[in-house]
Amino acid sequence: MSSDAVSDSRADENEQEVQGGGNETLSKRQRKKLLKQQQWEEQRDLRKQKRKERKQQRKLEKQAQAEDRTDCPDRKRFRKEAEPSPLRLVIDCSFDNLMMLKDVKKLHKQIQRCYAENRRAAHPVQFYITSHGGQLKQNMDEINKGWVNWKDVHIKSEHFHEVLSKEDLVYLTSDSPNILQELDEAKAYVIGGLVDHNHHKGISFKRAKELGIAHAQLPLGSFVKMNSRKVLAVNHVFEIMLAYLEKRDWQEAFFTVLPQRKGAIPVGQENKQEQDEDEDEEDSDTCEPGTQNNEDTKDQRNGKQEEHETQQNQSDSCERTAV
Ligand SMILES: C[S@@+](CC[C@H](N)C(=O)[O-])C[C@H]1O[C@@H](n2cnc3c(N)ncnc32)[C@H](O)[C@@H]1O
């Protein structure tokens, strides 16, 4: 200790006498102590108030947690009661280099939707995402790294044919001549992870044939009146498969998943729908199944080339209405 410090502390020790508030003479130390005590007393109410506030805050937090738990009883109940299906559903992301970034971002959202739907499904499938890499992975890392904690999903950088056995695979593609009737839960159904506005027409069918694996299209034509091509977005195909596993009825599955505004009409009810649409022309920019709009009439007038263009536009807007 320095000599200055020693003398300071001595000065304190010697208790330089100072006159207190009352008759007593108080030392500096005693005065400090008294002051502290007074402050402590003065702040008693403040402390009490703060304690009250903290208690109230804790109560509110507990209440919010309890509400969170009761907010989504279905979800919890579903997950508890969910009976997983052995069926494997694969999103094949090997088309990454064929997409522009804006479409990769759409695919990312569609995959997020598939994941969420599978988590709350009555019969969740064994979900695979294969050939995960490139722009998609980069986008998933940048936008929301949460995917690394996703549960019950096999995310693989390998191609699906390296992960699953060839005999089990069925590529889902609207260009296949085979129409899916029943789902075989021992199989692995593959969905092309592609948002391409049909610029790569028939690419998944071609891929299936190249790999020598089975392929099939959803039986849309038998249940939904289609005006044009039957190309659906990735998440719609995924959700239809989940809905079928739950309802065991294609028509119900299609109409649970395909939004009404897309003009999906059950086969046999077309006339009624046409009548409704005449009354509501504003809704004529719908796409895909059952759409009856001005563009179609124009196509019929102007021949094949324009029909093709319109179909492409319809396909564009279908993908826009997907997630
Ligand atoms: C937006 S589509 C991609 C369209 C792409 N031009 C093609 O030929 O695959 C995304 C994927 O959904 C699946 N898909 C879409 N419509 C389907 C249908 N009607 N039946 C079966 N699979 C379908 C296919 O696996 C397809 O690769």
TrEMBL record:
Catalytic activity: guanosine(9) in tRNA + S-adenosyl-L-methionine = N(1)-methylguanosine(9) in tRNA + S-adenosyl-L-homocysteine + H(+)
Domain SAM-dependent MTase TRM10-type as annotated: residue spans: 75-265
GO MF terms, alphabetically ordered: tRNA (guanosine(9)-N1)-methyltransferase activity; tRNA binding
GO cellular component, one term: cytosol
Basic and acidic residues bias (residue ranges): 58-83, 295-310
EC number: 2.1.1.221
Function text: S-adenosyl-L-methionine-dependent guanine N(1)-methyltransferase that catalyzes the formation of N(1)-methylguanine at position 9 (m1G9) in tRNAs. Probably not able to catalyze formation of N(1)-methyladenine at position 9 (m1A9) in tRNAs.
Protein name: tRNA methyltransferase 10 homolog A
